[in-house]
UniProtKB/TrEMBL annotation:
Gene source species: Jiella endophytica
Keyword terms of this UniProt record: 4Fe-4S, Carbohydrate metabolism, Gluconate utilization, Iron, Iron-sulfur, Lyase, Metal-binding
Phylogenetic classification of the source organism: Bacteria, Pseudomonadati, Pseudomonadota, Alphaproteobacteria, Hyphomicrobiales
Statement: the UniProt record of this protein carries the keyword Metal-binding: yes
Protein name: Phosphogluconate dehydratase
GO biological process, one term: D-gluconate metabolic process
């Protein structure tokens, strides 16, 4: 139970709505859990293949029905700064498992693409689809049925949601997510944004821009702004799939390594072979999903999770809606100011008290379900802590989270919030449904009424900007960017351009069926518009000059055209064939055909 009646009411309606799908899901994972891994009944030939590459000790243990075997799903590659530290993790995990008489094997690698590299590029059209590919790739590895539990090594945008979908599909297995942590702080985010905007205006050259970007993204670990990657870590911790306090510890530090070893030991302690069997499908229930949404709002997290959380919940048989997310926003105070919602980065957030402080504040206010099952045990209160390294440098020790914030401008208390409601809101109107991240938008800029300027590609807007055609009030309607059109790319190339125009005193806003992600910035943006243009949604009927009203305060998105006129217009049907080939896009044709809408998770499942 929570102390807040409204949280309980929303949880109850999610539970009631989900009953027809949640109960069959639970029956499936209970039946599978009762069977145990097939390793115990494999033919000798099957089992020999399963441990052929292992050393003598591991072979001996794997031949024993009573020795737990841990599956490692890794998103390691050394191009992504956030995932490069995972190169060392499998050996750390194997060693920690051997020390307690168990075994661990890398079950599979999964792809991990960097949205920072593909931003504004062709590859971004495969980014969202990569989430479901990751889920399937993890499923291939786990399908060998050799494992008693699994650890998931992933941190960035689509990787963690994809791994979470896989973990819940294999919900009979205990699961712990093991982060790599954020890179150390570099060039402040506001300075990086200033240089980007100067470059957009032609006031500095590419050399200065690259210098600023390199000073910002400078080493191993996640990007330090509060985008989807760091929102992922917050979610895994507040939903009970991390070990407590592990989200924001920097890579390649003694504490980080100690936490990886500890996560290994914990995963092996909660298998069906012991007395604390904790399958992932029971950790992630309706209460855990609500806790995740509350955490997202309290921190001003990524708009991508209005899709990812819906898809993750669905993998556990839980039906989460945008209305649920919106209603939870109304009752959740904003407690964190991390870029783009403030000037601090996630290292400053962690230093101010981090996840332990945040969870304690929300629990004390009655805004989280405390009596939940977690990978660490029962009860979320165990996560209201601060993790440190023991005196001998080998173990993780935990203390109560600090009573006071180390920096009230970054992390505040529930009785002195930055805002009385969360950072994400839903928009409704005659253009359909959409999402807006208002926490990064100044209050005086949250309502825009201006004529539409329609584009079918973000590059078209840049051409118009460079030609001086946008020096006025307008609402940029960038459509045919939804999942069925071209995979729903993020449109961050637009942020500096629209920011320049807003700084010149113009009223500007963005309306799109594409994405803007966790880095949605200071310009009001109605994103994830559903139905999308490709399916004939009303956004496909908007014309240049139509007045559009985006009201982030009341939650409305309207084209000010009478209903009869709007419905009489034929929707635009541009040629999208250029989005179907090149850099592997032809391999994703089936995804574009099968994908659902943003409101239902933009999933192919």
């Amino acid at each position: 139970m929570t102390a807040d009646r409204r949280i309980e009411e929303i949880t109850d309606r999610i539970r009631e709505r989900s009953a027809p799908t949640r109960e069959p899901y639970l029956q499936r994972i209970r039946a599978k859990g009762a069977e145990g891994p097939k390793r115990t009944t494999l033919t000798c030939g099957n089992l020999a293949h399963g441990f052929a590459a292992c050393g003598p000790l591991d072979k001996e243990r794997l031949a024993d029905d009573h020795t737990p075997n841990l599956g490692i799903i890794t998103a390691y590659n050394d191009m992504l700064s956030a995932h490069q530290p995972y190169e060392r993790y499998p050996e750390l995990i194997r060693e920690a498992a051997r020390e307690i008489g168990a075994t661990a094997q890398v079950a599979s690698g999964v792809p991990a693409m960097c949205d920072g590299v593909t931003q504004g590029q062709t590859g971004m059209e495969m980014s969202l689809f990569s989430r479901d590919v990751i889920a399937m790739a993890a499923a291939v590895g786990l399908s060998h049925d050799m494992f008693d539990a699994a650890v998931y090594l992933g941190i960035c945008d689509k990787i963690v949601p994809g791994l979470a979908i896989a973990a819940l599909t294999f919900g009979h297995l205990p699961a712990i997510f093991v982060p790599a942590g954020p890179m150390t702080s570099g060039l402040p985010n506001d300075e990086k944004s200033r240089i980007r905007q100067l470059y957009a205006e032609g006031k500095v050259g590419r050399d200065k821009l690259l210098e600023a970007e390199s000073q910002s993204y400078h080493g191993p670990g996640t990007c330090t702004f509060y985008g989807t990657a760091n929102s992922n870590q917050m979610l895994m911790e507040i939903m009970g799939l991390h070990t407590p306090g592990s989200s924001f510890v920097n890579p390649n530090t003694p504490l980080r390594d100690a936490m990886t070893r500890e996560a290994t030991r914990r995963a092996l302690a909660i298998t069906a072979l012991g007395n604390e069997y904790t399958p992932a499908g029971l950790v992630v229930d309706e209460r855990a999903v609500v806790n995740g949404v509350v955490g997202l709002h309290a921190t001003g997290g990524s708009t991508n999770h209005t899709m990812h959380l819906v898809a993750i919940a669905a993998a556990a048989g839980i039906k989460l809606t945008w209305q649920d997310i919106s209603d939870l926003s109304d009752v959740t105070p904003l407690l964190a100011r991390v870029y783009p919602n403030g000037l601090a980065d996630v290292n400053h957030f962690a230093a101010a008290g981090g996840m332990g402080f945040l969870i304690r504040e929300l629990l004390d206010r009655g805004l989280l379900h405390e009596d939940v099952r977690t990978a660490w045990g029962r009860g979320l209160r165990a996560y209201a802590i601060e993790a440190k390294l023991s005196a001998d440098g080998d173990q993780v020790v935990r203390h109560d989270a600090p009573k006071e914030s180390g920096d009230p401008k970054v992390l505040t208390t529930a009785d002195r919030p930055f805002s009385n409601n969360g950072g994400l809101r839903m928009l409704n109107g005659n253009l359909g449904k959409a999402v807006i991240k208002v926490s990064a938008v100044k209050p005086e800029r949250r309502v825009v009424e201006a004529p539409a300027k329609v584009f079918h590609d973000q590059n078209e807007l840049k051409v118009a900007f460079d030609a001086g055609e946008l020096d006025r009030d307008f609402v940029a309607v960038v459509r045919f960017q939804g999942p069925k059109s071209n995979g729903m790319p993020e449109l961050h190339k637009l942020t500096p351009l629209l920011g320049v125009l807003q700084d010149r005193g113009h009223k500007v806003a963005l309306v799109t069926d594409g994405r803007m992600s966790g880095a949605s910035g200071k310009v009001p943006a109605a994103i994830h518009v559903t139905p999308e243009a490709k399916t004939g949604g009303p956004i496909a009927r908007v014309k240049d000059g139509d007045m559009i009203r985006l009201d982030g305060e009341t939650g409305t998105l309207e084209v000010l055209v009478d209903a009869a006129t709007l419905s009489a217009r034929a929707p635009e049907t541009p040629d999208l064939s250029a989005n179907e080939f090149g850099l592997g896009r032809e391999l994703f044709a089936a995804f574009r055909l099968a994908v659902g809408d943003a409101e239902h998770g933009a999933s192919v499942f």
